[in-house]
Amino acid sequence: MSNSPTNVLIFGPSGQVARFAALESSTRGAKVWLAMRDTSKKIDGLSDDAKFSRVQADLLNPDSIKDAVAKSGAKIAFVYVIWQSKDYMRTSFKALKEAGITYAVLLSSYGVQGSPREEINHRHFVAKVHAETEIALDESGISYTTVRPAFFSSNIFGHLEGIKKGEVGLFSPTSKFDWITTEDIGAVCGALLTQESENPPKEVYLCGQQVISHKEALQIIAGSVGREIQIKELTETAWREKDATQPPELMDSLKGLFEANLPPRTMYEGEIYENAKANVLKYSGREPMTFEGWVDRNKEAFV
């Protein structure tokens, strides 16, 4: 990639990270193509037809992938993990490669540490799906970067109903996480999509700057909106019943994540973590957002 890309193809732009990746790519001078299942869907900030063109595509439909690449003329694409894919997206990546994509940025997970082929990355459901998808991309022959963010600040939206009512039920409320924002993740992805490096990084870990508990996060929201939020600690059984629509293997992975970050245990230590904290500034050129700053920006959602 010796020259800055003219066209960047963003799959799934209605997702928060993809949306911010599209905005960042455009800010950096790229012509952005939005690959969507429904091209009529409204997306905040991406309505300017001069900057953002839309093309119908589904990452589970190889023909639509090839059509989208052909119409956009893009050589560079942003992609994300499709949980329903039965071959960990091998068919999707094959279609991207055959259509002419030469570089892809894959939104992966901090749960994948080191090589995705290492056995430790296949012990739990969430890490395994991301690791297998990374392997499939690697085997496709497309040059790539996997972006591996940790715990999203937007996960708190899963408690939005309780936040508005003033009482939230939590499993392991004192487990601590980094709360990285989708804005920062998308900014890094957009920077990578428009870089000029001949040797892009294989993986980029991302973490937020503050490691705080769910309880502390809700206290910050309560302070921002000016009302009290009661926290009710849930037993594992009650928590699983509350989220009964989720696959058991996903709930098992989440339980392991909560347990791994219940003090004094933490995944936020060592060289990978220190690099992950620095990578938002390193790649986007901007200081990362704090959780308080993110809450203030999204205050209307919590009122």
From TrEMBL:
Matching Gene3D superfamilies: NAD(P)-binding Rossmann-like Domain (3.40.50.720)
Superkingdom as given in the UniProt entry: Eukaryota
Pfam families cross-referenced by the UniProt entry: NmrA
Alphabetical list of InterPro entries matching this protein: Ergot_Alk_Oxidoreductase, NAD(P)-bd_dom_sf, NmrA-like
Coiled coil: none
Ranges of residues in domain NmrA-like: 7-241
Entries under PANTHER family matching the protein: PRESTALK A DIFFERENTIATION PROTEIN A, PTHR43162
Protein name (Swiss-Prot/TrEMBL): NmrA-like domain-containing protein
